[in-house]
Amino acid sequence: MSSNTTTQSGMSTRTKSILGVGGAAAIAALVFGGAGTGADFTASDRGDVTVSTGDLTLTLANGDLDYPDLAPGLSKTDTFTVTNTGSVASEGEFEFELDSASVSGLTEAQAANLTVKVGDNAAVPVTQVLGATFPLGELAPDQSKNVDVTFALNSAAGNEWQNKSATGKGVVTLRQG
To answer: Same structural domain for residues 73 and 159?
Structure first.
């Protein structure tokens, strides 16, 4: 048998005990996360995020090539140096921008007696260099490469070659590799 004593507030001691235990359980649930929130401890911090692009630049040393007094059966070599001064690896290429009229008065067969060899590429008739590109290979950042350019006049070239000249530009391009 249980004893049920009534207090001044009109609640029995047993009722007060039940409410007291229930209230304590509710407070404990809130404090210790048992109220269904599923909360855990967390921490966070922020760091800087930086995105930057590399650059592709080059320097050209001895870029003015000169081949004076070429005669049948002779070849002359001149060398330029290209340096990748950028921060990105690249593939180099060389291209002639020749004035096609500079060998005027020659037939294509006669003009084919003048050949050019760029770097490790095969020699080709000068008639085939306009618009052609010659690969120079890979250049890592800060890497330099010496490139030989050789012009040769075939020994079969005749008098039609006297006092002829070819002028233009040599263009070196680096492309991201």
So the answer is: yes
Characterize 9-24 residue by residue with b for buried, 16 or more Cβ atoms within 10 angstroms of its Cβ, and e for exposed. eeeeeeeeeeeeeeee
**Phi, psi dihedral angles at 130 (to 5 degrees):** -65, 120
d(CA 65, CA 7): 115
Token pair listed for 154: 């075939």
Q: 92 and 146: one domain? A: yes
Single pTM value for the model: 0.70
pLDDT in tens, 3-29: 555 555 555 555 455 545 555 655 655
Do 127 and 86 belong together in one domain? yes
Q: Which domain holds residue 100?
A: 58-176
